[in-house]
């Protein structure tokens, strides 16, 4: 399930990646959007959950590494989320601060959407973010996603975007 994009190597997250996930969530800019820095135990739990997603559903998040330097850029990909009473295939991304503004989030998002529509045969993919997260919303638009509405998820408000699979032919 490893994928290569133009600049990134995307590696499925499993239990063995807990240390890298912890490092990623210790970046101040990542922690600000994810309710603080991960503890080692949180990173272990999340890495194990993502690994199970790959094993049981064939989909979860990737760690993203720069293909040239091998440096950890961020994470992203797909997961199943229950939103507004239905299960959706959701694409997401997060990057270490030093990689913001260089198109990496769009590259990760595109890889996730291509995987969803190609290998998984999904009809639709969603993404959501806090309404004030202009950077993430701009990525969604660059990916061809359309704003649908504000939703409430786990007591917080989010902007919901969708993209549908291209028509065959």
Automatic annotation (TrEMBL):
Q: Which SUPFAM superfamilies match?
A: Acyl-CoA N-acyltransferases (Nat) (SSF55729)
User: Which branch of life, at top level?
Assistant: Bacteria
Check the record and name the Pfam families matching this protein. Acetyltransf_3
Query: PROSITE patterns, per this entry?
Result: GNAT
User: Which parts of the sequence belong to the N-acetyltransferase domain?
Assistant: 1-166
Protein name, per record = N-acetyltransferase domain-containing protein
């Amino acid at each position: 399930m490893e994928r290569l994009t133009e600049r990134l190597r995307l590696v499925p997250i499993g239990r063995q990646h807990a240390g890298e996930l912890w490092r990623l969530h210790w970046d101040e800019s990542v922690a600000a959007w994810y309710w603080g820095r991960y503890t080692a135990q949180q990173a272990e739990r999340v890495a194990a959950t993502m690994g199970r997603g790959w094993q049981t559903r064939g989909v979860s998040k990737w760690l993203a590494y720069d293909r040239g330097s091998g440096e950890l850029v961020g994470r992203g990909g797909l997961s199943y989320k229950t939103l507004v009473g239905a299960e959706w295939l959701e694409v997401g991304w997060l990057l270490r601060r030093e990689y913001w503004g260089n198109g990496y989030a769009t590259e990760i998002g595109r890889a996730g959407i291509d995987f969803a529509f190609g290998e998984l045969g999904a009809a639709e993919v969603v993404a959501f973010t806090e309404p004030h997260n202009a950077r993430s919303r701009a990525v969604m638009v660059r990916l061809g996603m359309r704003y649908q509405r504000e939703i409430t998820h786990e007591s917080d408000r989010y902007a919901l975007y969708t993209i549908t699979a291209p028509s065959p032919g």
